[in-house]
Amino acid sequence: MSASDSARQVVECRVCGAADWQEVVSFGPVPLANSYLDPADSYDDEPRYPLDVVSCRSCRLMTLTHVVDPEVLYRDYSYVTSDSETMDRHMRLVAKLCRERFDVPEGSFVVELGSNTGEQLMIFRDAGMRTLGIDPARSIAAVAEEQGIETLPEFFSASTAKSVAESHGQARVILGRHVFAHIDHVAGIAVGVRNLLEPEGVFAIEVPYALDMLERTEFDTIYHEHLSYYAVGTLATLFERHGLRVIDVERISVHGGSILVFVGHGDGPWQQRPAVKELIALEERAGLHDDATYREFAAKVRNVTESLTALVRGLRADGKRIAGYGAPAKGNTLLTVCGLGPDDLEFCSDTTDLKQGKVLPGSHVPVRTPEYAREHAPDHYLLLAWNYTEEILRKERAFLESGGKFIVLHPEPSVVSAESLAAAESVAAARRS
Ligand code: TYD
Ligand code: ZN
Fold first, then answer.
1. Which of 219, 236, 276, 223 is nearest to 101 (CA)?
2. I want to staple 192 with a disulfide (CB 3.0 to 4.6 A). Which of 158, 211, 321, 382 is the partner?
3. What are the residue ranges of helices labelled H in 69-217?
4. Is residue 216 within 8 Å of 209, Cβ to Cβ?
């Protein structure tokens, strides 16, 4: 089967049904971001798929133009939730917000879509809830089971929802953290949620926030798994069409700026909190409904790409050794779009067992363990896992103090050192006092 056989071209908007698209960015055919390669394999026939983003002029959904078959993307998925303090703290916050705002008594049934290895559900289980994970990645679902979290190795759909409701009863909470934006047939999900959710239950989804992506030029979060880039207004339109209602929203910092959106039955007991209308108004003021905003984003993407490439190549010309810090999926978009490869980055260091010893798709940079990276420390690390910047800079104090530097992407590509961080910290401290 060729790559084009396993991708569907989007014609109508999955949210509103319109077909009036504005082109946003086009990154051309690129390999799948989580398809890490075995160094023993030949890379010549790496499947590539179009990676182009358009925006619906009617509801302002941003979507990829091509949807890769989920069977190809997720059955042998190697993505595991990062074992990090930042994520652990965040997952605790999600559980706390659900329980505090939407009255989730002990013994409630909590279902998670795209539950990965089960870490989020463990927090609910430890708070006395019954839990069930649903995740199509078979080997990852098996890891969750080993960790004591019952997990169905399935895609969530209207029929899965029906059978879970029959076998386990209805759910008080349905979670979808960083999975909802990966789903093409959102109407089927809405039908499933309506079936499975108790009348006073809450469906809590977390998606990267389109406003943050546009304002901070986070174009590397664009890869084939991320089909949709949602604003609150777009989600409100979507759920309203399917008998559900956005009842609350919280902006959160994970993955470069995300929103945690709470959804209830359209005729359910929960009033909509003011935060929902406030963010929709903010999106209008920020120009999310204007073509010009998306043209500006495309121009910023070109600038960042050019300045990062020039920065890296300049350092290489000065004889500096550079490695990637982390081998996240978004790093693969970044390196592919910038055309950076093994001549620029010697290796990427990553804590994930499944990635170590592999080679990055597209750029073909090898992935090494953090131990290897310490023994072969480069002059500069390109901080690919920038969503963990604070945690990583804290962890890499010794590297910085011995003269090592980081190339950071935000707010614009630049080099940070122990001295520049100390200077920035004293400016911040002066502002605070
Ligand atoms: P992740 O945040 O999951 O991003 P994406 O959705 O783009 O794949 O990826 C973070 C990657 O960084 C993951 O492979 C683990 C790695 N990592 C490290 O190597 N060291 C660290 O200290 C942290 C926090 C992450
Ligand atoms: Zn639309």
1. 276
2. 158
3. 70-74, 85-102, 119-126, 138-146, 158-168, 186-196, 210-215
4. no
Ligand that comes closest to the CA of residue 230: 2
| Secondary structure of residue 406 in the 3-state scheme | strand
Q: Which residues surround ligand 2, an ion (CB under 5 A)?
A: 13, 15-16, 18, 56, 58-59, 61
Question: For a pocket test of ligand 1, which of 350, 356, 386 has the largest count of ligand atoms closer than 8 A to its C-beta?
Answer: 350
By the 8 A CB rule, do 119 and 98 touch? Answer: no
CB atoms within 10 A of CB 212: 18
Q: Return the ligand number nearest the Cα of 61.
A: 2
* Structural domains present in the chain: 3-65 (no CATH), 85-270 (3.40.50.150), 293-432 (3.40.50.720)
Contacts of 60 (CB under 8 A, 6+ apart): 210, 231, 233, 234, 283, 288, 289
CA torsion sign for 15, 16, 19, 22 is: negative
Residue 37's DSSP bridge partners are 359
Distance CA 77, CA 145 (A): 16
| Ranges under pLDDT 70 in the chain | 1-4
Residue to mutate (ligand 1; options 90, 351, 391; most atoms within 8 A of CB): 351
Q: Is 389 in the pocket of ligand 1 (CB under 6 A)?
A: no
Distance (Å) from CA 58 to ligand 1 centroid:
35
Token duo for residue 334: 């970044």
User: Using one digit for the tens of pLDDT, what is the confidence trace for 160-185?
Assistant: 999 999 999 999 999 999 999 999 99
Among 82, 117, 255, the mutation site with the greatest number of ligand 1 atoms within 8 A of its Cβ is 82
CA of 55 to the centre of ligand 2 (A): 8
Predicted pLDDT of residue 2: 54
